[in-house]
Amino acid sequence: MDTTETTPSKGATLRCAFCLSLNRVDVARAGDRPKCGKCGRPMLLDRPVKVENDDFDATVLGSDVPVLVDFYADWCAPCRMVAPVLDEVAHDTVGRMLVAKVDTDRAQEVAARYEIRSIPTLILFRDGAEAQRVVGVDVGALKRIAADVSG
Ligand SMILES: [Zn+2]
Questions:
Q1: What is the 1 CA–ligand 1 centroid distance (Å)?
Q2: Which domains, from first to last, does the chain contain?
Q3: 30 band by pLDDT with thresholds 50, 70 and 90
Q4: pTM for the complete prediction?
Q5: Which residue numbers are catalytic?
Q6: Please, which residues have CB less than 5 A from ligand 1, an ion?
C-alpha cells in the first residue's frame, strides 16, 4: 500500500479581478498564490469574489469547495453590515471555502432562481446544491458556517 498522502485538487472557476477572464484554480493550493492564466496577476482567493448571471453556474455550482454566496444590493444598509464579516470569513476560510457576492440588481436572473425575497440573504452551496440559507444579518450563523468548513 502506498501511504503517501496526496492533497486532492479542489478546483473552482473564478473570474480574474483584473482582466475578468475565467480561470480554473486549485483552491486548496491558495498558499501557492495562483496567477491568472491570461494577465499573470494574482487570483484573489482570500476575499469575496463578485459573481454575475453568466458566471454563477461555473463559479458557484461548479466549485469543489463550498461557496457562501451573499445576495446583496448597494443600497441595502444591513448588507453593508454583513460585508466586513464576509471579508473576515473569506480570509479565515481561504483554501476551504469561497465567498461570493451577487448584486441582486445586476444578477436578477440568479436572484429569481433562488427566490431571494429579502436581502441580505446568504446561501451556502455544497456540490452545486443549496445546503444552508441565512436570511438577514446573522453574524453568528456566518461564523458557524466558517467554523464548520474549517473543522
Ligand atoms: Zn487576469
A1: 42
A2: 46-150 (3.40.30.10)
A3: confident
A4: 0.92
A5: 76, 79
A6: 16, 18-19, 36, 38-39
